[in-house]
């Protein structure tokens, strides 16, 4: 859970977060939900953590069948448009 999704995803992309992200190379945002109430967001996260992997995959594929990286869409950009801006970041984007 985060109040700044673009920042949080960037931390994952640049492997600034140790643990699961660094260990498994998770670098794509394939699903997210927004909540106005932080308690609702925390409750949802706790429920999802108890879900089976197959249920989580189905949830993702209902909204993002091709598992596209949604990070560029946070800025109103397509993946192609976003690629033009990546050079401006000194850390670069992991492959």
Secondary-structure blueprint of this entry?
Elements: H1 5-13, H2 20-24, H3 38-50, H4 53-63, H5 79-86
Provide the helix percentage: 40-55%
User: What about the largest sheet?
Assistant: none
Order of helices and strands: HHHHH
- How many β-strand stretches? 0
Please tally the helical runs, counting DSSP H or I stretches of 4 or more residues: 5
CA distance, first residue to last residue: 24 Å
* Uncertain ranges: none
Strand content: under 5%
Rounded average pLDDT: 86
Shape: globular
Structural class: mainly alpha
Roughly how many Å is the radius of gyration? 14 Å
Short note summarizing the structure:
The protein is an all-alpha fold.
Which terms summarize this structure?
single chain; 95 residues; mainly alpha; 48% helix
Description:
- Helices cover 48% and strands 0% of the residues.
- It has five helices and no strands.
- The radius of gyration is 14 Å and the shape is globular.
